[in-house]
Amino acid sequence: MATATTAWNCVTRSSRVNNGVAIFASKSEVKASDRLRVGKVQMVVHEGLRVVHNAKVIGARKAQNGNSRKLIVCGAGMNLVFVGAECGPWSKTGGLGDVLGGLPPAMAANGHRVMTVSPRYDQYKDAWDTEVEVELKAGDKTEKVRFFHCYKRGVDRVFVDHPLFLEKVWGKTASKIYGPVAGIDYQDNQIRFSLLCQAALEAPRVLNLNSSEYFSGPYGEDVVFIANDWHTALLSCYLKSMYQPAGLYLSAKVAFCIHNIAYQGRFAFADFALLNLPDEFKSSFDFIDGYDKPVKGRKINWMKAGILESDKVLTVSPYYAEELVSGPAKGVELDNIIRKRGIQGIVNGMDAQEWNPMTDKFTSVKYDATTVMSAKPLIKEALQAEVGLPVDKNIPVIGFIGRLEEQKGSDILAAAIPEFIDQDVQIIVLGTGKKVMEKQLDELETEYPLKARGVAKFNVKLAHMIIAGADFIIVPSRFEPCGLIQLQAMPYGCVPIVASTGGLVDTVKEGYTGFQMGAFNVECETVDPADVTAIATTVTRALAVYGTPAFSEMIQNCMAQELSWKKPAKKWEDTLLSLGVEGSEPGVEGEEVAPYAKENVATP
Ligand SMILES: Nc1ncnc2c1ncn2[C@@H]1O[C@H](COP(=O)(O)OP(=O)(O)O[C@H]2O[C@H](CO)[C@@H](O)[C@H](O)[C@H]2O)[C@@H](O)[C@H]1O
Ligand SMILES: OC[C@H]1O[C@H](O[C@H]2[C@H](O)[C@@H](O)[C@@H](O[C@H]3[C@H](O)[C@@H](O)[C@@H](O)O[C@@H]3CO)O[C@@H]2CO)[C@H](O)[C@@H](O)[C@@H]1O
């Protein structure tokens, strides 16, 4: 660690000294001879004048004019670079976007310097051209990418600009990120995400970012990259093959987070040539489908390489971490690799600014735990009217929100609806995805005009109305790494009915904050009759509790929980610190510095 100690040039990390701002990593580095130059040295403030956000008071000192002042030192923290194919609210098809949207501000709140890097899929009206351009090798071509930037909630949001992102997704921020329709991928996804990984490695070095009150200049090289899912798996490979041999990023580390093992980025083996990596990396990508019954022909597997080449592997709940190593079915044929490498599960938080019944901009009535019982029926009536169901505040309403993929079990739910719909209940299903499953949703109204509605749209307002107005949220997932729907629902007193898998096990307590249905068959091609029965019997059990004092108690238990990113951020901090990147120090306990970004910041 470079340490130069002269008065007011006492620094521990050069990236943290700019415009006369000196940040001391520890009290011992501040010498008695130091003199305050308030104004130039922004981290030093007059007592009582202003408290520096996320700062620690480390002592009092006489200033030149003789006044006693408090010396305040910012928590040295870490330089963190989150990289993802989605970043909410700018781009989101599901939970990956939520995590890149919500966890970084929580880390910034604790005094870390935080950047996200994601593609510029659209003309985001709040992000400006930095005019910084870099040339990157993608396949056999050299491509120019530019960086756009905005600073929100204490986070540098960096967007990678290249026609392969913008031309494909124009005006469709909630879809077409990975392919023209659900289930079909763009042919050039490998080139697109190779560009994302390389651009993310350039951003901390080339961008001179000065929006923050506390940090300025480039992030430098002492950074922790947090790569998310298969799209970012090449990052650690490029770090090792392109930068470190050139003496760059020598102390940088990469944490790789698995949000969904179902999507691994498996491609033809010959495509390895597209990635511009040395041959010694081949074995990390080498993969054969179906390891019990190998399918002919080798493949490359991006996620396998991400797991093997990163410094730490994480996932989004402890129970999912256990499931991933339990066998090929739940580990989706990477269980052996994960077992070898080790994995840590940290349960996700949810965005407590977006999902707050007291401030929700999509609901007409605001409420908290003391007013939920009178407010929810009013929102329920608005919800019923919105989707065209009979308006009756006494009927229990069940909601479902999710991507329509086999993972989410909307097909199992469709099969179970006839088994419980004769009871006094209404159900509203919101989702987009596979056409066959969207069709199942469309058919609900015809089959059960007074009881059920399916809405095959990505509709944020309706998602909020369902969670605020419904009594129950059903999450019948075959597998669920964490699940954010149940986390978003509970602060609204919307009681979850969940399959016993992944993060649903970690976050919903049977009989206390919700209802567990048992684990479902993970075989995606069939609907297991046992799972249909499990849904029907658990829904019946939940409906029996509806309206009783026990149900009111469950609502209160749900609403009393702290489900924000605050606690998960602390766990992430401990884990990332353990990677030992040069100059990294713990942060401090802090509050977010700015309100939630606008819901839709893309120009349509
Ligand atoms: N039609 C629609 N209209 C409006 N909003 C909609 C919507 N469909 C879904 N959403 C929103 O999209 C998000 C879905 O998040 P989830 O975590 O439940 O699932 P997903 O499988 O996408 O995420 C993956 O990554 C996350 C993050 O790690 C894990 O929690 C999860 O288990 C894993 O599968 C929620 O914010 C939800 O409100
Ligand atoms: O935030 C929602 C999820 O977003 C990501 O999942 C996407 C996945 O990474 C993409 O590869 C693609 O998946 C398709 C897959 O490639 C294709 O072979 C076929 O099976 O259809 C899939 C669905 O279209 O799109 C996924 C989003 O729909 C992220 O990786 C997940 O963790 C997030 O849950």
UniProtKB/TrEMBL annotation:
Pathway annotation: Glycan biosynthesis; starch biosynthesis
UniProt entry tagged with the keyword Plastid: yes
Intracellular or extracellular location(s): Plastid, Chloroplast
BP-aspect Gene Ontology terms: starch biosynthetic process
UniProt superkingdom: Eukaryota
Region (Disordered) location: 581-604
Key words of the record: Chloroplast, Glycosyltransferase, Plastid, Starch biosynthesis, Transferase, Transit peptide
Keyword Transcription regulation listed: no
GO CC field: chloroplast
Boundaries of every Starch synthase catalytic domain copy: 80-340
Molecular function via GO: alpha-1,4-glucan glucosyltransferase (UDP-glucose donor) activity
Family: Belongs to the glycosyltransferase 1 family. Bacterial/plant glycogen synthase subfamily.
PANTHER family found in the cross-reference section: GRANULE-BOUND STARCH SYNTHASE 1, CHLOROPLASTIC/AMYLOPLASTIC, GRANULE-BOUND STARCH SYNTHASE 1, CHLOROPLASTIC_AMYLOPLASTIC
Stated name of the protein: Granule-bound starch synthase 1, chloroplastic/amyloplastic
Species this chain originates from: Artemisia annua (Sweet wormwood)
Lineage, opening ranks: Eukaryota, Viridiplantae, Streptophyta, Embryophyta, Tracheophyta
